[in-house]
Model the fold of this input.
Amino acid sequence: KLLTISDNKERYDYVNLHEVKFFWYAILSGMIGVSLFATAELTPLLPVDDTVKLYISIFLLACSFVIVYTLLSSLIRILYPRMLESRLRSIRNKPRKSSAGNTMRKLSDEEGSVHLETNELQQHQSEIHSIEYDVWFDEKTGEKKVEKYMPYQHAEKCGECGYYTMKIDSEEIEKQPSQTEDGLLLEHYRCSYCKHREAREVVIAALSSNVKS
Done:
């Protein structure tokens, strides 16, 4: 289905939401295939009758699956997020085309900043999530395209272990933004591999500058 999606933002969302799931399906199918092959090759070599071979083949199948799963799952959990994030960054930063066919310019980080949904600020809940907006601008026609991204869904490189296994665990507002003044958001990160934790402060854009898509 990915090949049929032409819009870069839609491609990004599809890869972000579905590729990990489909990748795991492929890995599990491969592990089952390897386990069946190993069992089929080893079982006939055993000098026992057919009834015992049946039980042994089931045992070998289970053991080979567990071994392969243990070896691959850790490898995938550590290395695959880096590959995925690299691909997502490539899709996110690929130049967009306007409806007129012109190449659009992506506004800088200073021109587009971190925002929070207004209803989240009003609820004063701890379960909040910051939002990043990419704004693409066609300088010839003035057309603007706004794309919304959720940082908490993505892994970052851990400063301790070096793997891309650190994600936002929770976020809290330290200073509420007003119509004219920026606020402050505290993001708590946790590494799923080495359990390292750290906190980062992020500026929340003033409400008057919130981007509306």
